[in-house]
Amino acid sequence: MNKNYYAIIMAGGIGSRFWPISRTSHPKQFIDILGTGKTLIQNTYDRFLKICPKENIFVVTNEIYTSLVKQQLPDMEDNQILTEPVMRNTAPCVAYGSFKIESMNPDAAIVVAPSDHLILDEAAFVASIEKSLKTAADHQCLVTLGIKPSRPDTGYGYIQYTENTIDGDFHKVKTFTEKPTLEIAKTFLQSGDFLWNAGIFVWSAKAIVRAFEQYLPEMNDIFAEARPHYNTDGERSHVNQAYLQCTNISIDYGIMEKADNVYVLPSEFGWSDLGTWASIYELADKDYVGNAVIPSERVIMYDSSNCMVNVPEDKLVILQGLHDYIVVESNNTLLICPRDQEQNVKKVVADVKQQFGTKYI
Hints:
By secondary structure, this protein is an alpha/beta fold.
């Protein structure tokens, strides 16, 4: 196992689209949302154990989730859990992790990935990441993983690539596009040179630090100044001050869309960002009339089909005459809505917060 390989797991989000199961105090990445016996962050951590030494895996999360990370990943040392005092999108998160690792090992190659994605083919994932780490180190470039699209999905960003390659498989990135309309997504699929943006990045520590210097110089200065404090008792207080000076910006917008040394590896490893209940429904086991019920021990359904049901395992639930619905109960809250209107969940959460405060959020 290569000791220069490192992983940064981003675990600071609150997963509001999975409310009421995902709460601010216990968000999606810390939940066994597919009923596999492990939470999403535990599965993510286990995947990276196949790629780099366990002491080279870091989790960046909001400080309110520190105890959850320790509880679910007991092998992690305190200095591997990097806490953010405020949410500032992904660029500061990447900067913190990358600058800290670079100060420990200037020859490091780093993979950065979300904590809450599903990977069905782990062997293919490990092979893609290892190949990307080698290319990123050899060519001092920025690599992103692109997923070959199976449908014109409007829920993902897209990466357009050229025929210009390095190491045979890594294509020069031409454009990044945010979530498109359905018509535009269809044209992307037909053109054949677009991939879904999986939000998984690979680079050498030197290349990403140079990119911050060039494209986000103010953020670069903030985290470069902290170099003497990384891996000391003063790290947390210094980083807390640093975050208060950071702009709220994504790594995609801040660096990846601007840099001229970005390459994409077209990949297939059974990926889903598990971004919506619809994606959970697609992946879950279903009965002969299309109902996905997690857990299913005490749920009885009559004349009901194509429903996504997630309820407490100790509760008896009887549903009759429901077709194409989401039924979710958790934390003293019950949500029932048509599957094709699940995009309204974020608005519902905002309304609940306005009416009842944060008690149910």
